[in-house]
Amino acid sequence: RMETDCNPMELPNNTAFEEDSDYRDFEGTDVKDMRLEAEAVVNDVLFAVSNMFVSKTLPCAEDVAYINVETRERNRYCLELTEAGLRVVAYNFDQTDDRLQTPYHETVYSLLDSLSPAYREVFGNALLQRLEALKKENQS
């Protein structure tokens, strides 16, 4: 039997798919995921900066979230988190500057390492303490 192209006029005019709650929930998970990713980034390094939180002013979308960070040197940044990584998009909280062409960093550690010597020191010390603790555990 030969296949024929479907005539769009023969298709039922049914938009239930768009209204289906499962579909709506699935669509919403992507948005939550980028926000969750941003929250995880914050929780990972909050101990090594003065202040850090996901922006409530700038919109989180399926593919982007914004994080405000204040380093121990008291410098403020707004970071953009996307699939490409993290980058500085402004030198203040809750702002973006399209003229700013900063490089993407694969990790928040790499980004903060480049911005804040105090972060580097605090993070390094925490790492050393953790290693010392592991060494003691292995010796007992």
From TrEMBL:
<dbReference type="GO" id="GO:0019207">
    <property type="term" value="F:kinase regulator activity"/>
</dbReference>
<dbReference type="GO" id="GO:0051018">
    <property type="term" value="F:protein kinase A binding"/>
</dbReference>
<comment type="similarity">
    <text>Belongs to the GSKIP family.</text>
</comment>
<dbReference type="InterPro" id="IPR007967">
    <property type="entry name" value="GSKIP_dom"/>
</dbReference>
<dbReference type="InterPro" id="IPR037395">
    <property type="entry name" value="GSKIP"/>
</dbReference>
<dbReference type="Pfam" id="PF05303">
    <property type="entry name" value="GSKIP_dom"/>
</dbReference>
<protein>
    <submittedName>
        <fullName>GSKIP protein</fullName>
    </submittedName>
</protein>
<dbReference type="InterPro" id="IPR023231">
    <property type="entry name" value="GSKIP_dom_sf"/>
</dbReference>
<dbReference type="GO" id="GO:0005737">
    <property type="term" value="C:cytoplasm"/>
</dbReference>
<dbReference type="GO" id="GO:0060828">
    <property type="term" value="P:regulation of canonical Wnt signaling pathway"/>
</dbReference>
<feature type="domain" description="GSKIP">
    <location>
        <begin position="34"/>
        <end position="134"/>
    </location>
</feature>
